[in-house]
Amino acid sequence: EPKHVYTVKLGELAEIPGSPYAYWAPKSLRELFQKYPPLDRDVAGQKEAPKIADVKQGLATADDSRFTRFWWEVDVGNIATSSEETYRKKWVPFAKGGKPFYQDIQLVVNWLNNGEEIKNWINPKTGKPYSNVWMLKRTEKEFFFHKGLAWTKSAWILEDPHIDVGFLPSGSIFTAKRMTVFIPESDHLWALLSTIRSMVAAMSVHLVNPTGRNREASHIAQIPITNSVFTSSALTQLPNEAHCLLCEWATGDETATVFIMPWLLQVWRGFSHDWKPVTNHPLARDFEWSEFESAKELRGEGKKWKNKEASVIALANECVERESKLRKRLDEIQNAIDDEVYRIYGISEEDRRLIEEELSAVAVETEEENQYEVMPAEEHIKRMLSYFALEVMKEDEDGIVPLSDMFLGTRKEPGMATRVIAKLIGEFGEDNLDRIETEVTKVLKMSIEDWFAKEFFEFHTTLYRLRPVIWQISSEKFKRGKGKPAFSCFIYWHKLDEDTMPKVRQLYLKPVFEASRIEVENIKAKLSKVEGREKREVETELESALTKYEELKALDEAFEKLLKPQHGIAVTSKSEWVKVKVKEITQDGYKPERDYGIRVNIEPLKWAGVMAKTADRVKG
User: Fold this and answer.
1) DSSP state, 79?
2) Taking the model in full, what pTM does it have?
């Protein structure tokens, strides 16, 4: 039965740093703050306590659109992982956002010449950088590029009340929203991760800040730490296992720095220790497969896919089953961590129930994607197709691929669907193609070509967090009625240059446009020779042909507008830098500059209307 009456002395409330009005906290929990030193005595304001770790707030650029990119937007050979490398490489891994145990670092920040541009972007009113970099001199010198533990200060809103602390690898910079703990004894890092990830730590922070909405550095610094956690082998092994499981699982994510191949293909091909990340990202260079039994089971070590009459649905279901096992094991690890930390801190069963009831009551559901949700089978099949499409774009000489087969002069150029189907044949064998196509069509509820025409770009844009590397050039915005656009092709971000758009217009759109014009003329000629019912049928045919022609004509005119000098393109962005750079790359006609990132370079195409409507989601 819940307790509604609490008896506590005012002096006892002072046992918790800051004397919050935590009247409901039992004495055993309050005493932890008196019995054990804080995680960081300096931030906690307890100079007399022993020094355990440093809790640090990271870099706020003041304009992420200007200074940050996703790693897939830049040349990975231009990513530095040390201060020394920044004098010849521009980008550095930038830890932002977070998940427990393992967080793939997908952002990079402009830190060329040790952050020269950020440091020299001065606010005239204060005489200091707009960024908070001037406040981080010691942090920059002693902690940037070092390994530690990072958490997101607003992570309390997740349904899971645990602090979302995870391992931060060396070679990166952390943000103001992804705060970090550094400990001199690196051997203690995993045990400290367990401790901060425990319900005891979450409750400690809640006691210090019961009404607060964020987990600030000052709150984390107050967590009481006993040396006993550092001698527990379980607290060292468990988070290491969780980290390895999540890192290895990320090898199936196309946007991860450690990507190898989609999960479905990993199941199909059968695990090999020879597999290594294919991204060339510097943080992936030291990737190694772990020896945990749970990891061996999840990657299907020693097993081969028995049914060589391939079924992508069966393969996708196997992926779902493996991820379900992963999530179950992570839950077991978390429970074991909590049990061990409760034991070490001497928390009674009664107080444990109180902790879990209180934290469950304050946890709030969020609209963010549930980090524990298992990916559905159909997603695995779509990711396989997405992977093959990316391989197609990388292989294409100029990074321009039409949706459907077409002739460029006398040369036939296969379309995206044809090339992806060729990839399916290469992977599963021609004998299996009919079965594979039937299954894929069943899952997509349309043909492979229709999916690439109608849904792929939306899927890809979402997968790449609104910074897609494959762009769909399309007449969709000028289309009337239902059905596929009259023209569609794909271009690859890493091969985008000044010649790309003129090529798309002249070599790909013009032949389709001209063929449409000729079709209209032929139908008009035919119309003059028929009467009655046949005439009505030809009139309907002409109306359809004219609609297609007008759609293509509008797209051609949009290209003409794009390629002419432009002034005053209206750009909706909080970043003045984005507006300036869009103007710069359009003042002499569209002249892309990949160093400015996808956000800037895609804006003129959105404005001209030459891209599929999904491109409108690319903002910032």
Assistant:
1) B
2) 0.93
